[in-house]
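User: Can you predict the 3D structure for this chain?
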Amino acid sequence: MGYFEQVYRSGLSHRARAVYMYLKDHADSDGTCWPGIRTIAAELGLSTSTVKRALADLCREGMVTKERRWRENGSLSSNLYRLL
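Assistant: Here is the predicted structure, written as structure tokens:
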């Protein structure tokens, strides 16, 4: 459980820790996942704005990268997150 210690010793906010562990639990073997912000918020009992702030914190700390994904019709889909 190396990532658990890394996350808790990182100095991240509690919201960023919770979101990181959520992403880690939902990531595939390559460390990628694509849950929607509303889904993350609902499952963690957080607001969508809190999840957005947490994701921004994780990206700024270099623990997660975020890529936009698009549907075939040109509309936005959920983001792709890669855990580093």
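The longest strand covers residues 64-67. The CA atoms of residues 33 and 46 lie 19 Å apart.
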